[in-house]
Design brief:
The protein contains eleven helices and three strands; from the N terminus they run H-E-H-H-E-E-H-H-H-H-H-H-H-H. The protein is mostly helical and 239 residues long. The protein folds into two domains: 75 residues, Winged helix-like DNA-binding domain superfamily/Winged helix DNA-binding domain (Arc Repressor Mutant, subunit A, Orthogonal Bundle); 148 residues, Four Helix Bundle (Hemerythrin (Met), subunit A) (Up-down Bundle). It has a three-stranded antiparallel beta sheet. Helix 5 crosses helix 9 and helix 10 packs antiparallel against helix 11.
């Protein structure tokens, strides 16, 4: 019997699936220490281990190198890097760390980063946000109240990510805006790791509303204080 024809694009899709699986497996193993610093990887060995083409392996290695999880060395091969060299701001590295045994430390460091950045971003947003951004942030603050009280954590997460992303964008500081992926990952990780209560605490709902109202009313001091209070509660809950 003749083999069925391969649908257009199927080979490319399969390669993409293999690439994603291989990248996730290796990235997680490096983050978790299963492949410790100094481990030597070879193209041939990875081909055999994962049963993929040389092209897929090379593409995967380029991504891991861009994340600084590995480094190519002449006459040695691909060498696993230690935590001090990782690109810790990349969303994939954050996701792998939150999925591994070091998740508590990662949540702690990410929350410290948020406490350093987001209150200032909220104050700047109160000063620089456009009328459309102010209106949307206020709308999102009320929506978080409704979803939180209704225990709709999946929808709450989506709105919460949009809320914090928009505050960063409205700040007008491109360095803060570049942290959108970081904030999204830590918010997602907290929910997916079961660290969010089924119904968010009243303090969290109230301070989100206070941040939104302060930005809407162009009050930077209140916006900064409300965001600082929100993240202090997050830090306490995670601890």
């Amino acid at each position: 019997m003749a083999a069925e024809p391969v649908p257009p694009g199927a080979e490319t899709e399969t390669a993409a699936v293999f690439h994603t699986r291989m990248l996730t497996a290796l990235g997680q193993d490096i983050i978790d220490g299963v492949l410790p610093e100094g481990t030597r990887l070879t193209i041939e060995g990875l081909q055999e281990q994962f049963g993929v083409s040389r092209t897929v392996v090379r593409d995967c290695m380029r991504v891991l190198e861009s994340l600084r999880l590995i480094v190519p060395k002449r006459r040695v091969g691909l060498v696993v890097q230690g935590p001090g060299r990782w690109n810790v701001y990349d969303a994939r590295v954050i996701r792998w760390r939150l999925n591994g045994p070091g998740r508590a430390d990662q949540f702690h460091s990410l929350t410290q980063l948020r406490r350093a950045v987001e209150p200032v971003a909220a104050a700047l947003a109160a000063t620089h946000a456009s009328p459309a951004q102010r209106a949307r942030i206020l709308e999102l603050g009320h929506e978080l109240r409704r979803l939180g009280e209704g225990g709709k954590l999946g929808e709450f997460l989506e709105v919460d990510i949009e809320f914090h992303t928009l505050v960063l964008e409205a700040s007008g500081n491109e360095m803060f805006v570049a942290l959108r992926g970081v904030i999204a990952e830590v918010l997602s990780g907290r929910t997916h790791q079961g660290l969010m209560p089924h119904n968010p605490r009243e303090h969290a709902l109230l301070t989100h509303e206070q941040v939104a109202t302060s930005i809407s009313e162009a009050d930077p001091q209140r916006a900064e204080a409300a965001m600082a209070s929100l993240l202090a509660e997050v830090s306490s809950a995670i601890s």
